[in-house]
Specification:
Thiol Ester Dehydrase, Chain A; alpha+beta; six-stranded antiparallel beta sheet; 2 helices; 152 residues
């Protein structure tokens, strides 16, 4: 738990958990309680997850082009949600991203992940970020996974 300069915790996770708040509620990509987040709404698909996203002008790196870190974060979060929507949590062990085409503010995007190879502890997931069915960015991630309590 991180602390402030006074040594007090910035977030009281124990108290928050008792009130029903979960740390993922403040996720930058999909947290409904993050006031500066992207507020993605993921949908479960047969072998993964997907969401729609329209980048805003304040998310640029170079003028007129969305920052690559935002695109990488989108790919990472859709891969993590592919696990979450089937009742597992996962942490990113490794991720490789390929930027194929520039993404601009106002582009209507579809970010999609499909679960691939699995073993006892990890899952490999592939993701794409597309505009009009043209892949703008893609990624492959390896996730260490753990089943959520009460699922299954």
């Amino acid at each position: 738990m991180s602390g402030s300069a006074s040594g007090r915790p910035l977030v009281d996770f124990a108290g928050a958990a008792r009130s029903g708040w979960r740390p993922a509620n403040r996720c930058f990509l999909c947290g409904p309680e993050n006031p500066v987040g992207l507020w993605l709404r993921f949908r479960r698909i047969e072998d993964g997850a997907e969401a729609d996203f329209m980048p805003a002008p304040h998310q640029v790196g170079w003028e007129g082009i969305i920052h690559g870190g935002i695109l990488a974060a989108l790919l990472d979060d859709v891969m993590g949600n592919a696990l979450y929507l089937r009742g597992e949590t996962g942490v990113t062990v490794q991720m490789e991203v390929r930027f194929r085409r520039p993404v601009r503010p106002g582009d209507q995007l579809l970010v999609r992940a499909r679960i691939g190879e699995e073993n006892r502890r990890t899952t490999t997931i592939e993701a794409t970020l597309s505009r009009d069915e043209e892949v703008a960015s893609s990624g492959v991630g390896t996730y260490f996974r753990k089943a959520l309590e009460g699922s299954r």
